[in-house]
């Protein structure tokens, strides 16, 4: 444990209370708000260890709480709680809103419950996403920010210190959550730019497949974004037309380069004119008078010094443009720009192809399952195996439309194949006790056992018994019977009847 983790690990309710008292001295928070905040932190204290274990995440409880404290201290000036008696409450409910967050004014208006308030506070965090692609920058940023908030709120939404159950109806966006969880489980939580996303994908998939998956994520992000910002659809359609026109112009390479050369010469001529004005006072004055004559009265430049600043700024911008034109003349830049335009157009096809968002989400799930299989191939240690087993178990319970991932017929075969690979590998590496010498039967039985909400999988104990010409399997969470399964027969069963034993070898 690092020194930082050790300090965070020693935090308790008194520490949280003391920190909140310090915040309240400088904030306009009511005593009722303080009680809400303390309740949230208490619930996190109680449930975080289970959240940490089930999701197999890296962030410690102390680091998680410190993020919340920091958001309150640095990014929040006021919190208003909307009670059921408030006339605004029904409006929130009808619009399916749980909170309104104004980052600029650092204000929160939240429904009168801990989950809504926690989501609002999480929205104030500075996660420093720097997605700047012209087409998918904003959609990706919103997908990651929103997904991260849903993911973090889960600690009090689905965990209570006793049990774990995903409350699908309380998830702000099923689609956003599923895609973010795919990324989180496969690539981790340190992605902040498009380039990092591409690089992480290329570490798992071969180059062309990585491009396809990146495109899928971008298409889904764009569909979610325009569904939330319908006024943006027209702008994206216009961009698509512009990209198509640019690509058509680039197809005639000779004409394209000739146009760039013409534009570059025009920029160079203007820079020379500005340079002459900046070094010759008479020239500067003539240009100032000439420019002002052409401007309307309310747009005239006040003084020669203002004009000098203006043309210096113009020169700086022209130098950037000149560099851009010079770069475009290079063969590599020409090919790269052409590739970027093609990729943007492929992403923008979602605007008009009439396919439901779940078409793309389903395709992403298929690719995600392939990615997990790649991770299994690279697994070398018990820790690697356990991490994958926990991730698969969690993945199965994720909401998809009105069901769970484990019930989606189109990906069941892929999921079963992945489970068979990991469970049989786990048996060979002495992580799991085998149930049957038949690998297919072995994985089928273990798959049924691990479709469970037991938090600590290592605590699972099994007992096989003969009963009424059947084999009865009891699954225990330590001393508590979690569930009972009956089989007509289990081919190649290796377990002794009546003897209780652990599924996972310690």
Key traits:
4 domains, three-stranded mixed β-sheet, alpha+beta, globular, four-stranded antiparallel β-sheet, disordered N terminus, 506 residues
Indicate the structural class. Answer: alpha+beta
Shape: globular
Overall number of strands: 9
Low-confidence stretches: 1-10
Mean pLDDT: 91
Order of helices and strands: HHHHEHEEHHHHHHHHHHHHEEHHEEEE
Number of helices: 19
Main sheet summary: 4 strands, antiparallel
Q: How helical, in percent, are the residues? A: 55-70%
Termini gap: 22 Å
Number of self-contained structural domains: 4
- Radius of gyration, Cα only, in angstroms? 30 Å
* Largest sheet, spatial ordering of strands: 8-7-6-9
Please tell me about this protein's structure.
With 506 residues, this protein is of the alpha+beta class. It folds into four domains: 1-126, no CATH class; 132-228 and 359-371, no CATH class; 247-329, no CATH class; 379-502, no CATH class. Helix content is 63%, strand content 9%. It contains 19 helices and nine strands. It has helices at residues 3-9, 13-26, 31-55, 61-75, 87-94, 114-123, 137-157, 174-187, 194-204, 207-228, 233-251, 253-279, 281-293, 304-328, 331-348, 357-378, 382-396, 409-428, 439-450, and strands at 78-82, 99-102, 107-111, 399-400, 403-404, 460-467, 470-477, 480-487, 500-502. It has a four-stranded antiparallel beta sheet with strand order 8-7-6-9, with no helix packed on it. Strand 4 and strand 5 form a beta hairpin. The radius of gyration is 30 Å and the shape is globular. The protein starts with a helix and ends with a strand. Mean pLDDT is 91; it is low at 1-10.
């Amino acid at each position: 444990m690092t020194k930082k983790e050790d300090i965070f690990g020693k935090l308790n309710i008194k520490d949280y209370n003391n920190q909140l008292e310090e915040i309240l001295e400088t904030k306009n928070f009511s005593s009722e708000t303080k009680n809400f905040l303390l309740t949230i932190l208490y619930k996190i204290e109680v449930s975080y260890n289970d959240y940490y274990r089930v999701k197999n995440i890296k962030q410690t409880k102390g680091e998680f709480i410190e993020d919340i404290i920091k958001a309150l201290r640095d990014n929040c000036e006021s919190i208003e709680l909307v009670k059921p008696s408030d006339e605004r409450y029904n409006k929130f409910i009808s619009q399916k809103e749980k909170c309104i967050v104004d980052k600029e004014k650092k204000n929160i208006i939240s429904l009168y419950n801990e989950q809504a308030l926690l989501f609002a506070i999480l929205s104030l965090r500075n996660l420093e996403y720097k997605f700047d692609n012209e087409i998918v920058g904003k959609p990706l940023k919103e997908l990651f920010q929103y997904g991260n908030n849903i993911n973090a709120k889960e600690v009090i939404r689905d965990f209570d210190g006793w049990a774990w159950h995903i409350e699908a109806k309380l998830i702000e966006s099923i689609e956003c959550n599923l895609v973010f969880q795919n990324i989180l489980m496969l690539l981790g939580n340190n992605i902040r730019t498009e380039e990092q996303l591409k690089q992480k994908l290329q570490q798992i998939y071969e180059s062309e497949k990585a491009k396809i998956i990146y495109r899928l994520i971008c298409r889904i992000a764009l569909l979610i974004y325009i569904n939330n910002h319908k006024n943006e659809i027209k702008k994206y359609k216009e961009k698509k037309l512009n990209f198509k026109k640019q690509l058509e112009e680039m197809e005639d390479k000779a004409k394209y380069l000739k146009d760039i050369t013409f534009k570059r010469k025009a920029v160079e001529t203007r820079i020379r004119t500005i340079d002459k004005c900046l070094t010759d006072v008479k020239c500067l004055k003539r240009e100032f008078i000439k420019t002002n004559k052409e401007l309307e009265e309310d747009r005239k430049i006040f003084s020669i010094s203002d004009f000098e600043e203006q043309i210096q700024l113009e020169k700086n911008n022209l130098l950037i443009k000149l560099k851009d034109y010079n770069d475009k003349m290079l063969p590599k830049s020409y090919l790269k720009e052409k590739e970027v335009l093609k990729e943007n157009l492929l992403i923008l096809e979602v605007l008009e192809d009439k396919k439901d968002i779940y078409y793309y989400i389903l395709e992403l799930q298929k690719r995600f399952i392939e990615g997990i299989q790649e991770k299994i191939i690279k697994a070398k240690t018990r820790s690697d195996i356990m991490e994958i087993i926990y991730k698969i178990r969690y993945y199965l319970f994720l909401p998809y439309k009105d069901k769970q991932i484990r019930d989606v017929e189109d990906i069941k075969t892929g999921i079963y194949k992945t489970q068979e690979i990991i469970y049989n590998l786990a048996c060979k590496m002495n992580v799991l006790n085998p149930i049957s010498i038949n690998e297919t039967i072995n994985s089928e039985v273990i798959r049924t056992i691990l479709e469970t909400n037991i938090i600590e999988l290592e605590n699972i104990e099994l007992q096989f018994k003969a009963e009424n010409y059947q084999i009865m399997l009891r699954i225990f969470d330590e001393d508590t019977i979690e569930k009972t399964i009956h089989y007509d027969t289990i081919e190649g069963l290796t377990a002794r009847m009546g003897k209780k034993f652990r599924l996972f070898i310690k």
